[in-house]
Amino acid sequence: MRRDEVSARKKPSSSVLLFQRNPVMMKRKDQTPLVDLCVEKGIDNVKYLGDVSHVDHDMLERILPHCTLDQLMHIEKSTQGMDLSPITDQLWRKFFEKQFGINCTNEVVKKMKEKRVSFTWLQLYEAKVKRVAQTENEAVDRLAQRYKEEDARKQSRKIKTCTKLPPSERRFCGDNGSGYNLSVKSSNIMKKSKKDFLNSLEVKNNTAMKRRGIGSTSKYLTF
């Protein structure tokens, strides 16, 4: 065997030298696939998602579970020409159960089975929210009407109270102060009558006659 043939066999190829210089290239199978990178990017920016009709179903099944209720609702309303219910139906059931309770969720399932009807959980969620809002509005209206009636009743009581006579005008109508006022007036009238009587001419003459009689009788009495 010639020397040049032996040297050619011992000399490594350029590809081998490349892998030796770059060990990462030899671990290509361990690298993250491009799809996984896209999914991670979608999860990180899920709040910015809107119309996802162009996104693959498998990717959406991995991205959409990371949405909040409002984010998922925005995606549902923004997506055109694509039915997301096969992907989002169970997500909406979880939101329904979280907001209205497991008992309400089971009752809905029971009624659908009894009536042999089927609705998506998004439809059920929207219908339940609308019904709850309507019930709350009716309760608020009833409460407002009750307060209105109570205010009207209080106003009517105030008007009735103001129509009564004030205390100063009720003294001469048989209240507690009427006896005192009448006695004072009677006393003043008696004093005036007595004074007029004493000042009359007849009383003065009688008084003078009595004084004379007393004087004439006393001069005959000696001790």
From TrEMBL:
Gene3D superfamilies attached to this UniProt entry: 6.10.250.3180
InterPro entries found in the cross-reference section: RNA_pol_II_trans_fac_SIII_A
GO annotation, cellular component aspect: elongin complex
GO biological process: transcription elongation by RNA polymerase II
A Pfam family recorded for this sequence: Elongin_A
Stated name of the protein: Putative RNA polymerase II transcription factor SIII, subunit A
